[in-house]
Amino acid sequence: MNASRYDAIVIGAGIVGTATARALALAGRRVFVLERGWPGGEATAAAAGMLAPQVETSLDDPLLSLGIAARDHYAGLVAALKKGGAPELGYRACGIALVAFDEARAAELRVQVAAQRAMGLEAEWLDRAALAKRHPGIGPEAVGALLAPRDGAIDNVALATALLASGARAGVEFAEREEVFELLVRGGRVAGVRTSRMTRETDTVVLAAGAWTPSIRGLPRMLQVAPVRGQMVLVPWPDGEPDAVLFGRHTYALRRGDDAVLGSTMEWAGFEPATTEEGMDRIRRETGALLPALLGQPVRKRWAGLRPMTPDGRPIIGRDPDVDGLFYATGHGRNGILLGPLTGEIICDLVVRGETPFDITPYSVTRFGGA
To answer: Cα angle vertex 273, ends 271, 278, to 5°?
Structure first.
């Protein structure tokens, strides 16, 4: 057997690529993952670890149902990873509060609560008194909140490390700092990839390279995936304030250990993962409206990441209709941590069984038109 030939090659070792490789390996495939940098070093490491489909997704977006399934998939995944020896992953379905700061927004959120409950989802409206009881340090301008009790968070860095280790135990091979230059196609099907080191043969390739996916030559169509910068900051969590994940006007604050993760901006800044004073000031000001005690906390860390966004904000998931053996798992934007593990299972279903129980029509690579 050619030592460089694999059953599947996954391009990208972020949360999506690593989860996909792990799922394929557990299904008995020989899998190789190629990463231009280091595993989890881009959008995955820069995320906050939110599992918030009910808070971040509108009711008319098909992403809501997939997000709910992805969120609920986490309990079993975390149990399996811990059984395999993973350390604490910071997983908690602690509930997320989406806070309103005026009566107009409160009215919108009350309608959203009713609509989510009509869909069979758990959702509550917290008036000012109930919100203050749950979060004693809430800002004085907050008038109420939508509470999604089953939404939550996970330590995204710990999760990425655990998936990497679990995949490796299942037989996944990883190559760091090996950039894929070109997809090789012969006779309408995948033949392999050409990288910065060599040509690697396979008849199955999964594109999970995030914002860098469109730079690969030889793809059968242009991919509308572009980097969107998100700035974030880490400060101490205020003493005496209970555990919380709070969303405000355009920002969020969540507790992770003794720290508060505050974010995030949405900026079309190209491939420039830099922080700015303007971005930091906005995050501190708006999260301070959620929890005023955050305003006096010293900055422990500031960073930015590049989210792979598509024009409609939904990922590209599924097979290519023109090239056999080519699969897409990219463009997850703000939802990479939420959707990553379930995306891996969906791609595994498609590769191994040729079908998936999930409706992935809204995530087709052809939905933007063009070749």
So the answer is: 120
Which DSSP letter does residue 92 get? B
Contact yes or no for 2/200 (Cβ under 8 A): no
pLDDT tens digit sequence for 352-366 = 999 999 999 999 999
Q: Which domains does the chain have, with CATH numbers?
A: 5-47+157-224+312-363 (3.50.50.60), 93-150+226-309 (3.30.9.10)
How far apart (Å, rounded) are the C-alpha atoms in residues 229 and 40?
Answer: 16
**Cβ neighbours of residue 120 closer than 8 Å, sequence gap 6 or more:** none
Confidence of residue 370 (pLDDT cuts 50, 70, 90): low
**Tokens 């934007």 sit on residue:** 333
CA 112 to chain centre: 23
Q: Show Cβ contacts of residue 322 under 8 Å, excluding neighbours closer than 6 positions.
A: 188, 220, 221
In DSSP terms, which residues pair with 230 in a beta bridge? 305
Helices (H), the chain: 15-26, 43-46, 53-56, 63-83, 103-118, 128-134, 156-169, 277-290, 336-352
* Res 371: pLDDT: 56
pLDDT digits 0-9 by tens, 291-332: 999 998 999 999 999 999 999 999 999 999 999 999 999 999
With 60 as the cut, is the pLDDT of residue 154 above it? yes
